[in-house]
Design brief:
This protein is of the alpha/beta class. The protein has 16 helices and twelve strands. Strands 1, 5, 6, 7, 8, 9, 10, 11 and 12 form a nine-stranded mixed β-sheet that branches. Helix 1 packs across helix 2 and helix 2 crosses helix 10. The longest helix is centred in the last third of the chain and has 30 residues. The chain is globular, with a radius of gyration of 23 Å.
Length: 469
Amino acid sequence: MKRRKFLQHSNHAALGLGSLTTVNTLLNMRLINNAIAAPSADTEYKALVVLILNGGNDSYNMLAPAGAEYANYASVRAGVNLPEPGAGGRDELIPINPSNTPGRTFGLHGALPNLAQRFNDGRASFLANVGPLAQPTSITQYQNRSVSLPVSLFSHSSQVETWATGSPRDSSSTGWAGRLADRVRCFNPSNQVSMNLSLAGNQLALVGQQSFPFALRSTGSPELPTGNPFSQIATNSIQSMTEIEQRGLLSQAFNNESARAIDLSVRFNEAFETVNLDGFDTNDFQSSLQAVARTIGARDVLNQRRQIFVVTLGGFDNHGAVLSSHSRLMSTLDAGLNSFWNGIDSLEESTGLASDAVTLMTVSEFARTLRSNGSGTDHAWGGNVMIEGGAVDGGKIFGQYPNPDEFGIGRGLDVATNGRLLPTTSVDDYYADVALWMGVPTSEIFDVLPNLRNFHGASLNGPPIGLFS
């Protein structure tokens, strides 16, 4: 850790006014770790895309009760409820047909027609009422504070960190996806380019002991800043440092890593440029998803069999005007994901990508309160997430979607008086299913998710939820 901090400070000094993204790129290629992971004989390619909905998604309007349960939903969410299917009006719920919820009816937000179609086609599923838990917790235990609870519940910063690290009680210098990558790096014949790729700057979730994030732009690997008088000075400084012999071990390590990082940035961009995908809009969200799809398309040139991506969509902290704001966000989400999956489908045809090779999962620091604060909603706890891809057991709602007795204000699963629902599935179980699908051995799952032991004891026999078919 001291060495890494030294390199960060040294690199920043060498770049002068260089961007943080450039610093991240130069440092996190991490060629020094190549010898740690031996190539695996497994040739199957898998990509995980983690989509973070920043701000706290109002996920009980993303996936809402319908049919016989609609009246309770509309009463509890009065003022922020959506019209039931067939009622008319803006964003009326789109009916979906879960295959594993007999007797219960649900609808998706009216701005999600493409996601609804993929769900009904068996290509997407939901996990209901999931959130950070330190251990199994009941309403009574929460109210009596008789069990350990995640730190700083309902705080943006704390819950962002908790979801990123998978550590609900303690701070961690590594993230859950970084530790996952540590265990599956052996699948990659080459570890010259990190398997952890962020379209959202530095992401703690992607930091492991041997695996580190590589920050991408929508146009590929970041390069040294251009368009200002300092850029050439920065470039010359880096190149000069790599040519001058210096005696210090740390100085030489920095020089070598900088030179190799520059070379690998060029190589990455050469591979990235070989893949062209149309059908994406030019907004930031779709540009990021396009970059993910292009990088997946370049997997063979990059010699990668496992990759993890992080993409973000912000704006979900809707304390006011939630109906209009959330509608725009759901529309942006739906259009972006539709373009992404169309791009993945085209890669199946053009590059032989397996139909079950890519999984996309959503996370958000918390859901929103069921009760309206007047025009918006406030910070809550358990919420609904979406997971989709060819390997997902699609068309299902996993977990325990609150029934009318649980879906209420000041009753049921509400831990307070405004509809903050106690999660019935832990983030640990969600991540465990994904980690096992990516190839983490069951015997190593507690190294990736230490808190999982609190839910499953000394061993785990298989995926705790069964999200994959």
